[in-house]
Every structure is written in C-alpha cells, then in structure tokens.
Amino acid sequence: MGVIELGWWQLALAALLVVALAGCTMAARLGVGRSLLIAAARTAIQLTLVGLVLEALFASVRFHWVALMALGMLLIAGREVVARQTRRLTGGWGFGIGTLAMFLSSFSVAVLSLTVIIGPEPWYRPQYAIPLLGMMLGNTMTGVALALDRLTDGAWRQRAVIENRLMLGQPWHEAIGDLRREAMRSGLMPVINAMAAAGVVSLPGMMTGQILAGTAPALAVKYQILIMFAITLGSGFGTLAAVALASRRLFDGRERLRLERLSAPRQ
C-alpha cells in the first residue's frame, strides 16, 4: 500500500483551521492566540527547512555531513536545556553540563543501536541515524532540563537544610542526597510515563508514521519498542550524569555550598 500524496492546498486547509483556532482563543481573551500563530509558523518553516536538509543528506550519505548535523542538533538541545532552568549554573556550566550529559548518553546509545542492533550500511546512513538521534536528543533534553531545574532550584530553597547537614559533618553528596534523588526521579518520569502509556493510551509517533507510510504493523511495533528502550537509556543515563556533575559543581573543594554559582531566577 503506497502513501497518499498530500497537496499544498490540503496543508493550507489545515493551516486555516489553526488560524480559526487562534481566532477563537483571541475572542475568548485567552492571551495565547499570537503565540499559537507564531508556533504554527515556526513549525511549518522549521520542518520545511529540515526536510530540504534531509533530502540532501539522504542523497549524499557522507559521514561528515551527518556528523555536522548531529553536532548542530546537540548544541541546540544544550541551549534549550539552559533556557528551561529557573536558576542556571553560571559561567557556561549549565550549558556545558547539559550538553556533555546528552552527548555521552544519546550519542553512545545511538551509535550502539546503529552498529550492533539495526545494522544499516553504512552504519551512519542518515535515514536511520538522524531520526534515531533526533528522538533520543529530544527526550533526553526534556529529562536533563527537568532534573537540573529541580536540582538547582531545590538547592536554593533548601540551602539552610543542606548547610545544617554539612555542619553536622555529612559529606556534600549526603547533604544533598535527597535532592539529587528527587531531581533524578523528575528527569526519569517522562520516559516512564511514555512507556507505561505506549499502545494503551497513545500510539507513539514513529510507529504511527511507519504505519501511515505502509510498513507492516508488526515491524513498526518492533522498531517502536527498540526506539522506546533506546530513548529510555539515553534519557536515563543523561539525567544521572547531569545531576551528578551539576550537584558536584554546587560545592567547592572544601565541601562548602556555593550558591553564588547559580544565576538569579528568570522572570
């Protein structure tokens, strides 16, 4: 079964419905109509541009172009991690820790999945590498951002408790241990919820797309299970690494809490 071709008029009809929705929100004075239109425009522009880039990548199948696009995706994800934190680590540490954690987890799991499990030829074939890495980075970014935000904001709010524990002789990792565990749980919760709801509450996007493209449902399910497990590994290890590095940065060599290393809260 082939894919049903979509024409521009059909996309325009869908866009008109979004405009109608924005009009309804404006009439109801919800204050989100402008944001809705801007987000819809960004979606159309960004996806159109990435479609052109992917067509060029699929045609060339060159490692350096795939690596360059992966690097760009990683840097943008690192920027988004910093933007979502109320109190970020200063001096580029917030960006550096988030980016490093995502690189170590997502790239490692993606390369392992491509070379050992899926096995395309060549292993960096963009048809497989870019969508896999994109899904992993997107989910890992969410987990790392949630965990770092919970850690830094919690350290600021519970500074008296942490300092009291330090004065009682606890090492830094025990003084902030409860907060570290809470931050890690926050980062892992989205992937746990996604796996728990997969198939019974929602059909994941990749599986839905493959079925719409004509892939047999049984094969689409196998790919989706692999992707869900890979996303969980990337997000989980990324969250653990980010919390470990960021919590250590909150203390100096003499195990003193250094909250001046956090920026002022974002308005």
UniProtKB/TrEMBL annotation:
Subcellular location: Membrane
Protein name: Iron export ABC transporter permease subunit FetB
Family to which this protein belongs: Belongs to the UPF0014 family.
Membrane topology qualifier: Multi-pass membrane protein
Chief location bin: membrane
Entries under PANTHER family matching the protein: PROTEIN ALUMINUM SENSITIVE 3 (PTHR30028:SF0), UPF0014 INNER MEMBRANE PROTEIN YBBM-RELATED (PTHR30028)
Sorted UniProt keywords: Membrane, Transmembrane, Transmembrane helix
Membrane recorded as keyword: yes
Organism of derivation: Halomonas halophila
Segments crossing the lipid bilayer: 6-24, 36-57, 63-82, 94-118, 130-148, 191-213, 225-246
